[in-house]
Specification:
Aminopeptidase, seven-stranded mixed β-sheet, 7 strands, alpha+beta, single chain, 6 helices
Length: about 170
């Protein structure tokens, strides 16, 4: 699909061979704050998730895609649509890049591809994201793609003994 293929990366559906990548990523505690995870995932549970991951976005209201380097076919991260609301033409976006692949422009390219996909193929009117106030890299990433801050949820995330504000960003398709 041309819409999901960029210059350096492409976005593809989950495959059974992604089990080890998912296991490593989902159990990386540095991601738990943004994924709202509190305990490790078993390979068995992730295997069940993979078996059901091919369900239609209109049924499960979410879509996870793997971000893959074009040159090496290496999985470098994941990008998700969640809270998909076709009636209201909106969905949330979340993105994770493995630390070994940060600062290469992959997140920006993946976000651009997914935004285009949501407006072109899913006929969405808007996408949004939630970012903790201290996550300056994500704020920059989403603002660079045209997202605008529309609100602040005070003391929304409790992490490492402190409360953090969460910013709500929105991109509306004209």
């Amino acid at each position: 699909m041309k819409t999901l293929k960029g210059r350096h990366i492409n976005l593809r559906a989950l495959e059974p061979t992604d089990l080890d990548f998912l296991f490593q990523t989902e159990n990386d505690e540095s991601f738990w704050e943004v994924s709202n995870t509190q305990k490790p995932f078993s390979k068995h549970l992730l295997q069940q998730y993979l078996e059901n991951a091919q369900q239609d976005i209109y049924q499960v209201k979410q879509l996870r895609l793997i971000i893959v380097e074009n040159d090496t076919d290496t999985s470098v991260g994941m990008i998700d649509l969640f809270d998909f609301e076709p009636k209201h033409k909106r969905a949330g976006i979340g993105i994770l890049i493995n630390s070994k692949f940060e600062k290469k422009g992959y997140a920006s390219e993946a976000l651009r591809l997914l935004i285009n996909y949501t407006f072109t193929h899913l006929d969405l009117h808007q996408v949004y994201c939630n970012i903790t106030e201290d996550n300056t890299e994500s704020i920059f990433l989403f603002e660079k793609q045209g997202f605008r801050k529309i609100g602040v949820k005070k003391d929304w995330i409790y992490s490492n003994g402190i409360f953090k504000n969460e910013l709500l960003y929105q991109l509306i398709h004209d």
